[in-house]
Description:
alpha+beta, two-stranded antiparallel sheet, 2 strands
Amino acid sequence: AFLGIQRTGPDLANAGWRFSDRMKVHQSLYAPRSVHEWSTMPSFKHLYVVQKAQGPKSTKALVLTGKFKPAKGYEVVPTPEAEALVDYILSLKKDFPVPGMTAEVAAAKK
């Protein structure tokens, strides 16, 4: 694995354990610098739709602020592909014992 800023995104090993907020993962995919200003991760805006808000705000709409906020009257919502990607990222959990650890010790750590 590359170190420091040589990476172009976060390490996804055990991402399912580290990321607990689904909307934060969506926000990181749509506008990585809205989460960390120094991020070198590329944006995946093509997985999201900026649509005119009609009626109440969508429950799936991203909460963005500052320069990342959509124009007034618009909202950013994930496509089915974005939802599938977030499902995949949240499923990345290494929940098997560490080599050399007994099954009883591993089960007690859960």
